């Protein structure tokens, strides 16, 4: 039995990645999941990470909690699903830690890469789909909903993260696909599906 493909959606808050991760998973009959919070243990960690009341959470603690969530996610859900031949579509992945804790929180990138590679046992996504939307549009979208701890950060935080995502994509074009997130949902879904077929033949 051939193993499934591991596809991750990345992007800033409000870009539409959660919507399109679900749409793609339905199209592929894939396992749909998210980070943080893709397991029962992960949900506990997610609640700590996103709670706006946890203002004392240090950048290093944040990075460790994220990697703990990811280790459990790989061991309990993603790894077994791929081994059984199922495709997995995840709303966020290890690259979010590099972008948010590395570029956003300005923590040491090499340390974060080592920590997260150990946490995931070297199981990185086969393809990352990055939904690119101008920060101005994202900030307007965020005004319409109750904000979590990350969404309450200032514009410069998101600018650093956006630059980090773009740098990672530029350095590894074989595993990254950048899509314009401004078209309507149906057009964007087709754009993603067509791009995925060209990259992974699925």
Please provide a written account of the structure:
Helix 3 runs parallel beside helix 5 and helix 4 packs antiparallel against helix 5 (109-120). The radius of gyration is 16 Å and the shape is globular. The chain is α/β, with parallel strands linked by helices. The relative contact order is 0.20. Helix content is 55%, strand content 12%. The protein has a single domain (6-200), classed as P-loop containing nucleotide triphosphate hydrolases (Rossmann fold, 3-Layer(aba) Sandwich). It contains 8 helices and 5 strands; from the N terminus they run E-H-E-H-H-E-H-H-E-H-H-E-H. Strands 2-3-1-4-5 form a 5-stranded parallel sheet, sandwiched between helices.
SS class:
alpha/beta
CATH-scheme architecture: 3-Layer(aba) Sandwich
Residue windows where pLDDT falls under 50 for at least 5 positions? none
- Count of helical segments? 8
The CATH topology turns out to be Rossmann fold
Give Rg in angstroms: 16 Å
Total number of beta strands: 5
Write the CATH homologous superfamily: P-loop containing nucleotide triphosphate hydrolases
Percent in strands: 5-15%
């Amino acid at each position: 039995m051939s193993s499934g493909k591991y596809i991750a959606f990345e992007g800033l808050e409000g870009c539409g990645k959660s919507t399109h991760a679900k749409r793609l998973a339905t199209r592929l009959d894939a396992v749909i999941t998210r980070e943080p919070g893709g397991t029962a243990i992960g949900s506990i960690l997610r609640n700590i990470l996103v709670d706006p009341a946890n203002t004392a959470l240090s950048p290093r603690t944040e990075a460790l909690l994220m990697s703990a969530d990811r280790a459990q996610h790989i061991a309990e859900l993603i790894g077994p699903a791929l081994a059984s031949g199922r495709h997995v579509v995840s709303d966020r992945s290890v690259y979010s830690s590099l972008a948010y804790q590395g570029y956003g929180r300005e923590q040491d990138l090499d340390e974060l890469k080592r920590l997260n590679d150990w946490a995931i046992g070297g199981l990185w996504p086969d393809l990352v789909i990055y939904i690119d939307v101008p920060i101005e549009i994202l900030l307007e979208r965020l005004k319409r909903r109750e904000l979590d701890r990350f969404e309450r950060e200032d514009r410069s935080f998101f600018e650093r993260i956006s630059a980090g995502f773009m740098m990672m994509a530029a350095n590894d074009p074989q595993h990254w696909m950048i899509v314009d997130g401004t078209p309507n949902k149906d057009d964007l879904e087709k754009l993603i599906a067509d791009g995925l077929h060209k990259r992974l033949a699925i």
